[in-house]
From TrEMBL:
Domain of life: Eukaryota
UniProtKB keywords: Membrane, Transmembrane, Transmembrane helix
Start and end residues of each HPP transmembrane region domain: 38-204
Pfam family of the protein (one): TM_HPP
Tagged with keyword Phosphoprotein: no
TM stretches of this protein: 42-62, 74-92, 104-122, 171-196
The organism's taxonomic lineage, starting at the top: Eukaryota, Fungi, Dikarya, Basidiomycota, Agaricomycotina
Protein name, UniProt field: HPP family protein
């Protein structure tokens, strides 16, 4: 017991002797990266507007004015990315706006939406599919929600990505081609967010998973007493 207490005391003493950097942290002590200072509201509003405008304009420029996509009947923009713009440019510190959620959430939802819609497409008549689009859309969105939770890629706008595969005639008509379109759309949003959000802010907060700062675990009550009253031993 006394050996453990001694090791703890040495660790605390060593950390206290580390030099202090300009931001007040101990140099050489592993800590989570600090967030940049909070910007005034008008700065956040300005860059949110610029980011959403530029990001959505980029999507429509690529898909709405490229002969390659026009010939294949790809819509000028997938509507769910309007909601993604709110997160990726206006709420950039939110976990739901980080790259893993943006890329993974949309792609998983698109895959689920197309797969379920294709299964409903095996029904004998097209008329029967039209009658059951509500069921295919609801099942697609609900399944996508669960899979995003399981894979830790929850991105609320992606629920609409799954839904559109069933209920939107434009999206339904391109079939499996919906997957690369969604993947490219997410990539364009991410690239534009990396440029615009890092001018006076910082994005992303994390790429794969958030950094959890290392903390010292509290000692049991008996060990705390030994540290406070070493003479009693």
């Amino acid at each position: 017991m006394s050996t453990r207490v001694s090791h703890f005391q040495h660790a605390v003493t060593a950390a206290a002797l580390l030099p202090v950097s300009l931001d007040g942290s101990r140099i050489g002590l592993a800590t989570a990266p600090r967030l940049p200072p909070k910007q005034p509201d008008y700065i956040v509003w300005l860059w949110s507007f610029i980011g959403a405008f530029c990001g959505l304009s980029l999507l429509q420029a690529v898909f709405g004015h490229s002969h390659y996509f026009l010939e294949r009947g790809v819509p000028p923009i997938i509507a769910s990315y309007g909601a993604s713009a709110v997160l990726c440019y206006g709420a950039i510190d939110a976990p739901l706006a980080q790259p893993r959620a943006l890329m993974g959430g949309h792609f998983i939802s698109a895959l689920i939406g197309v797969c379920i819609t294709k299964l409903f497409g095996l029904l004998p008549t097209e008329h029967r599919l039209d009658q059951l689009r509500w069921l295919a859309g609801s099942l697609s969105a609900a399944t996508a929600v669960v899979l995003m939770q399981v894979t830790k890629t929850t991105h609320p706008p992606a629920g609409a990505t799954a839904l559109l595969a069933s209920v939107s005639p434009e999206v339904y008509s391109i079939g499996w081609y919906y997957l690369p379109v969604v993947l490219l759309s997410s990539t364009l949003v991410l690239v534009s967010a990396l440029f615009i959000n890092n001018i006076q802010r910082r994005y992303p907060v994390f790429w794969v998973q958030p950094v959890v700062p290392a903390v010292l675990k509290p000692l049991p009550v008996d060990e705390e007493k030994e540290i406070d009253n070493p003479a009693d031993k």
